[in-house]
């Protein structure tokens, strides 16, 4: 395919769709992304953060996956045996909720279907959406090894999940007990913290009087949830609060219910906040639960799993919790117990899945004892053997959470997920936990499934074959980097680290690259309710995958949120078009030129040596920046080199030799053009895989695909500081002349006279060697160069490093305007001189900065001062 491609002319314009439809199938058929083909090479592994099989990928996925693809493509080209392992998460409640919603639309429910038939429906859903996700991965151009694709409920991962559960249970680190958990009364299941969405709600603060049993007074408490008072089993005060010193140990009578409850002393209470007395409801508040444990208080649950008040709620039994609140408050007011209701804005937890207000609820669940597991992770991190967070500040967030971790509720009252491998013997009351399914007349399996984070916590090693000692596990684990958002450091990253340390004695990845959220152009979080979401497939349809990938990856800074602006995608598309047009020009001048013809060791011109030097610097900088995950800076370096140096300067300069009569100069420029364009495509390839493959296949090249082409390495032999100095003088002169033309509206089509006074013999020699360039790019009818040149009376003036330029433009120039322009330039130069002087006068800077940096600043000041003196001299001449 590649040979034919090289012989075909490139189309006038780049068609992203055509390239995307052609190259992804080609890559797939060639198995270019499959790991294991370089058995002697060093490995580089990334396991994809598995998207949920709940629907379409969003713009956040596009950022996350693109960053991983950039890393894996670059490492593949650098010769590593790369594995980017794809996979998907069953997503527990998220998927079950979506399937149940679909069943409701069809007039049925999971309960009508039964567990087995319902699970068949969910598996059908999984297959459908897994196909959709793969299609989206292909549209983004992701270089995944599909031969190793995994699913969190496939046979191998199910085995790993059960093994982990049993081992932790056998060590006493998994237990069953009663605790307060997040409860979704609509879905009737426990929720993980990540499934609880906190929303600001305009509510009320209710102040209630609880009378002392001895009639000596009352204690005032405040609550935002008065219906939970029906489950109060104490009122707590701070032990050092003088107001309540004599009341500790006394008995209160709970209004309405009449239950006698004690006043207890506990340091949990903030004595300076409110009345200093807090109602304690152990079955409906996590902090109250802990107070209750310390004081051996009863735990009274006043509502059932649907949020309906139960028998413990007395006269309110059967009412929904919201209805109960209304009726109870009315009754309390009538009894004179509710003495004040204040407006109160507070954060209320809602189920991310059902939208219901989450109930802190005392429930019998399965838990992981986290402290022992967390200790190993903390020790690893503090000893310097832990995971490297990028940016580093996220390590503190991770450590803060893991140092204060609570036991993890891992059971969910769902049907979709890894069913808990526990069986109850109804005859003996015994509990059995087993690696294998158990049978027996008296055995009943636990109905619950595991939290979806339990299986995804094992993802880096379970996907590679653990608990079996597979070849992939021994070769590709630990992985190199995890790329993920900061919003799941606690829920996923931390859990992967402690499970990996526990079960593999290794950290699961070397680095964690944390990126931010993709927000809309105004900085708002994208959401369905705001209607400000961006569908990556729509962007790809309109602008192409490369434009989206380049914009979203180079617009991101590690740890920082990214604002999505369509104008930036348009700029990226224009950049792609610029690369395309430059390549078309080059190819028109490379007809019949083969890869074997490329020879950059021949005698080269100044521009040829300069572009090789600049490419070499760019390759070095891009490699360094990518190794440091600085994608935004990488994009800037690539953009500046391709747009400015290659397209705007070198390609223009190359036209002289390509169209000239000197065959050896033409051959040299062809070699440089082919060499630099080929290797520039390689550097841009991880960011823009489709256009780079399309162009590379047209260029003289060897090999099947750019995806396996060698990554450009820094080459000291390409350093050419003399050519850089020469080109800098020429470019500064050309820019200065063009700026003057623009100021006085003299188009390039109109020839001008140009007088150049070089500052030294060496600069005079440079100008003599490059006279043809100066004539062409400055558009001169007359060009005079020499150190003897005197400034004409009426001329535009430009002072550049190494020369003074005079443009005699009699009839086109206004002396007053020219003086004003020069005074403006003088003000700028004065400012620059003062800035550098101030910097060099700063003892802190001079003592800390490297000698090279200080020398550069001194050279700048000398240059600015010389230019200022010449501008001053010219102003004086014009005024005279």
Separation of the first and last Cα atoms:
72 Å
Mean pLDDT: 92
- Write down the Rg: 36 Å
Strand content: 15-25%
What percentage of residues falls in helices of 4 or more residues?
Answer: 40-55%
Estimated structural class: alpha/beta
Task: Name the strands of the widest sheet in spatial order.
Answer: 6-5-14-16
Low-confidence stretches: none
Total strand segments: 29
Largest sheet: 4 strands, antiparallel
Q: Which outline best applies?
A: elongated
Q: Helical stretch count?
A: 28
What is the gist of this entry?
With 880 residues, this protein is α/β, with parallel strands linked by helices.
Describe it.
The two termini are 72 Å apart. The protein has 28 helices and 29 strands. The strands form 10 sheets. A 4-stranded antiparallel sheet has the order 6-5-14-16. With 880 residues, the chain is α/β, with parallel strands linked by helices. A hairpin with a 6-residue loop joins strand 7 and strand 8. The longest helix is centred in the last third of the chain and has 29 residues, at 851-879.
